[in-house]
Amino acid sequence: MRAAERGTTSGLAERFGRFLADSSGLADLVVTDAHRAVAGFSWESWILDTAWDRGRRERRLVARRAPEFGLLDRYDVVEQWDLQRVLWEGGTVPCPEPLWLEATGEATGRPFYVMDLVEGVVPTPADLEETLPEERTRVGLVGDLARVGAEIHRTPLDVLPGALPGTDDARPEREVSVWHETYLRDRPQPIPILDLAFAWLLDNRARISPRRTLVHGDYRLANVIARGGTVAAMLDWEGAHVGDPVEDLANCCMRLQGGGVDTVNGVVSTKDFLALYARLAGEPVSEDAFRYWLVFNDVRSAVVFLTAARRFQEGRTGDLRFPVLASRLPNLLRHVLRDLPDR
User: Fold this and answer.
1) Strand extents, DSSP E, the chain
2) Is residue 21 part of a domain?
């Protein structure tokens, strides 16, 4: 770490510390270490080691801070805080306990909220077998992910934050329209495969299931904290909205997540996963809806890659992961063509 970076992190730790001391009522609380988790392209996640009572008491916390530049258009810290409070208080969807909110940006320059740190590991498609070497643990975790999905989709709509996307827009294709607008804004030129896919999505809205639930928006193994074969916490709710829950299931099963269309992360078959979810949720999973949202999630991921490229080209970020994302677009376009039903 360069000296300038160390100084920046040190100053941020002090500012976090002052906010936490004031919010907790513990005047001698200090942040002894602060480092940013490098994973993710949206919210900044800062791991904060805190101590008080002359160092005799310690606690690890996480600050979710709005980014300077991110891949998404909306970073509403109050909305995220309100949603996580609802889920925490509901007690059925595992998530970190939200503790304090700083919505003004005065403390550190950007808004953030603080939550408890949940111990465990975050598995990704690239290191799943290394992170969870026993097959039965991986199978158990995917099964528990199906349970958590059923609980997410069971959350009463009337307790959700009123500003949550989709709450005041009942169009079943709302998410498709939102991402189509983003595509038209960020594409460098027309991309025929995506034009075809968006046209298909808009022409096949009848495939969308009639259910309306809370949708996580990026439901997959890489967004959980795993403790053994269970989901200790579901993370990254910035894409949450009200819509068709099958969207979540298709996202979890898409090829981009590392398993191919017939498996979830190469661990269990898609058929078995969907059957388990249907049994736990008490709701069947429409094959037409699943295929529809599979195409949508391919297309949405492609648009995210285009947005990453544009923001790097415009100089809005120097994060080299953004152009690396964009380099994966050709392969993802092949997924779009494979998943589009006969046209």
Assistant:
1) 30-37, 44-52, 57-65, 98-102, 112-116, 213-215, 224-227, 230-234, 241-243, 263-264, 268-269
2) yes
Rounded CA gap, 280 and 263, in Å? Answer: 19
What CATH number corresponds to the domain at position 283?
A: 3.90.1200.10
Domain span including residue 38: 3-116
d(CA 82, CA 80): 5
Q: What is the pLDDT of residues 2-39, one digit of tens each?
A: 333 334 566 899 999 999 999 999 999 999 999 988 76
154 within 8 A of 213, measured Cβ to Cβ:
yes
Domain count, the chain: 2
Q: What is the pTM of this model?
A: 0.92
Burial 100-117 (b: 16+ CB within 10 A, else e): bbbeeeebbebbbbbbbb
Same domain, 311 and 334: yes
From residue 61, how far is each of 45, 83, 222, 239, 309 by CA, in Å?
10, 19, 20, 23, 33
C-alpha to C-alpha distance for 247 and 239, rounded to whole angstroms: 12
Three-state SS at 175: helix
**Same domain membership, residue 155 and residue 88:** no
Answer whether residue 157 is part of any domain.
Answer: yes
Cα–Cα dist 44/104, whole Å? 16
Together in a domain, 216 and 100: no
CB 197 within 8 A of CB 343: no
Residue 339 main-chain phi, psi, to 5 deg: -85, -20
The pLDDT-based confidence of 260 (bands split at 50, 70, 90) is: low
| Residue 246 · residue 293 · CB < 8 Å | yes
Q: Quick one: pLDDT band at residue 104, thresholds 50, 70, 90? A: very high
**Do residue 132 and residue 106 come from a single domain?**
no
Q: 3-class secondary structure for 281-309? A: HCCCCCHHHHHHHHHHHHHHHHHHHHHHH
Grouping H, G, I as helix, E, B as strand and the rest as coil, residue 58 is strand
DSSP string, 203-219: HTGGGS-S--EEE-SS-
